[in-house]
Write a structure and sequence with these properties.
This protein is α/β, with parallel strands linked by helices. Helices cover 34% and strands 15% of the residues.
């Protein structure tokens, strides 16, 4: 089951922190005060007292609570439409095995994201890997700090970066969005790699990112888990590949260590159907990518596939708008480039990287240690000068 919060007009409850930008932790007034039998039971009264203010709840409070009671609490929150992200995260941390069967996916679709977007990335991140993270982000809303902060999400498995035209008619709060957003550039991508954090990123999709070049693809090879990079209407990447021409085998061409293929180059119906999964919604694209292939070419996921998924869409793409309909009508397979990795080559590159790191570690002097000090020894110059002086005197 997926829990999806579609939010286009956030309540503006910012005093409780970023977790409550789009949700209210308090129970609705008068919720289940009575039932058909009269007053509720003591158990129900204790429940209401516990979940009256969810912002006060922490994972430590549930350490000795059995799953049957935790499920009773979660079901009660569902009845009052208060299954919040905060409570979802607590359940995922304390009851990883049982809760996965109950709610495997939580999605926040924010129509009006607050700024800075870095706050959302801190919420997505989990260093204990209690859930997998997915992020869809519009560079129109991003500052340089926001784009850099993407590397902080250690459990990030899939990322969509697109450009959305700014609309002054949108409703925003006092921390309003302006039109100073930055496009994604090669430097930001290199920063992600150098942070050495995105070790579980498997899918990266770029839409209308005209500043990104094939140099970014060269950097992205250092991400061990990354299996797919999709570029749609990325001007500099498109120009580079068009100079290479269509491959004779109809499969792909080598670009910075990646096998590049355009959607209309595929003639095999099975491969084309499989490739169409890459342009589906991000969750669908990720889940199809981690499915074992018949030919055994699929690289196993580095994170357990039983971990739930927390997904943020900042902001939500509204496909009902006229401008979005116009974009979809111009959707062309000639504009979509997919970059995949050869498993054999990826393994060889990984082994080379490990060897370089071992060699570098062996050559470095351990911190706190000192090189052995050599004693000064006079060189034997063949002639004893003392004899010469004695003969002189």
């Amino acid at each position: 089951m997926s829990t999806i919060l579609e939010d286009h007009q956030p309540p503006g409850l910012t005093r409780l922190g970023p977790t409550w930008y789009h949700e209210i932790p308090f129970l609705p007034h008068g919720w289940e005060t009575t039932n058909e039998r009269g007053s509720g039971s003591l158990k129900h009264a204790a429940l209401k007292s516990l979940i009256r203010d969810q912002s006060a709840l922490k994972p430590e409070l549930f350490e000795h609570v059995p799953w049957c009671l935790a499920k009773y609490i979660w079901d009660a929150l569902g009845r009052c439409n208060k299954q919040t992200m905060h409570m979802w995260k607590i359940m995922s941390i304390v009851y990883p095995e049982q809760f996965h069967e109950l709610s495997r996916h939580y999605c926040l679709s924010a129509g009006s994201p607050k700024k800075p977007l870095e706050d959302y990335m801190n919420i997505l991140n989990n260093e204990d890997f209690c859930w997998r993270a997915m992020l869809t982000i519009a560079t129109t809303y991003c500052s340089a700090a926001d784009l850099t902060a993407i590397s902080k999400i250690k459990n990030l498995v899939a990322l969509d970066v697109y450009s959305q035209p700014y609309s002054s008619k949108s409703t925003h709060d006092h921390m309003s969005v302006n039109n100073d957003g930055l496009p994604l550039q090669d430097g930001f991508v290199r920063g992600w790699i150098e942070s050495n954090q995105l070790q579980h990123l498997r899918i990266l999709r770029l839409y209308n990112q005209h500043e990104v070049t094939t140099s970014a693809l060269r950097s992205l090879r250092d991400l061990p888990e990354l299996q797919l990079v999709l570029a749609y209407e990325c001007e500099k990447i498109t120009k580079h590949i068009r100079r290479s021409g269509k491959p004779a085998n109809g499969i792909g061409i080598d670009v910075e260590g990646w096998s590049a293929c355009r959607l209309d180059w595929l003639w095999d119906s099975e491969k084309k159907t499989k490739s169409l999964n890459h342009v589906m919604p991000l969750l669908h694209a990720y889940e199809s990518n981690i499915q074992p292939a018949k030919d055994g070419e699929t690289r196993p996921s580095s994170l357990s596939t039983k971990l739930p998924i927390l997904e943020f869409k900042l902001p939500t793409i509204d496909h009902s708008k006229k401008e979005m309909l116009a974009i979809r009508s111009n959707y062309s397979s000639m504009s979509i480039f997919m970059f995949t990795r050869d498993p054999v080559r990826q393994r060889i590159d990984g082994e080379k990287k490990q060897k370089r790191e071992r060699d570098r570690g062996a050559s470095d002097v351990p911190e706190g240690s000192h090189r052995p000090v050599k004693r000064a020894v006079m060189k034997d110059r063949g002639i004893d000068i003392s004899k010469t002086l004695n003969d002189f005197f």
